Amino acid sequence: MDTVFLFKLALAFIVGGVWVIITTLLAEKYGSKIGGWIGGLPSTSLLSLFFIGLTQSTEIAAEATTVMPAVNGGIAIFALVFAYFIKSKKLFFSLMSAIFFWFLISGLVIYFNLSNFLLSLFIFLILFIFSFYMMEKKMNIKSVGNIKIKYNIGQIIGRGIFGGLIISLAVLMGKLGGPNYGGVFASFPAMFISIMVIVYKLHGVEFSRALAKTLMVSGMINITAYSIFARYSYTYIDNLYLGTLVSILLALISGYFTFIIIKKYTI
User: Fold this and answer.
1) pLDDT tens, 82-127?
2) Residues 224-236: tens digit of each pLDDT
């Protein structure tokens, strides 16, 4: 493997691990709404698109965003399936079922060679609305408040290592293909998987279901918004670093409005 990609892998491990630690700690301290909001902000997708632009070109990075909204919609189904099956308290089965549906949707995106960005956004919108409606109205998943817990450094580091490994694996899988595969694995639910495993093991069914819902809302809005910002920033700004900076600043605005939505309009 080339040096740049190894650096990308190491950075994904560090950033991903730190992001998982921050998300789980904030969820425990301030409740599922805050934790889910933080966890859904773009991290893996930001890094993946940046390194596609760095190792190939900003044009290819912009092209990789074409499939991201549709595949991101697959994460909404992932969260919905996980929240539904975890009621049975079978973590492995719930995760495998959720991952299966994500791969099914992603596989269809690749099989049909989705090349229309507006269609990709439409697919995302349908999957997101359906998943949110089911979790909020039909499954009636309620947010959970803070949890009092004593930490030790070993537990915190363990969370980071586990989360970092899962997210690095997603980046590694993105190396296997071109822009489409890069876009697909930029939206792989690595953050969801690592956070859900940790939270379920520590706090059980209700907390993990509540966090899955707010992660889904935050992730669907913010990661999709970032893919839109990056697509046009990389296309019209002929500079990877400036394009990424503009995308991040716009994503911060998106993140603020997402926080308002989660705080006011979710139970």
Assistant:
1) 999 988 888 899 999 998 998 899 888 888 888 899 999 999 999 9
2) 999 999 999 999 9
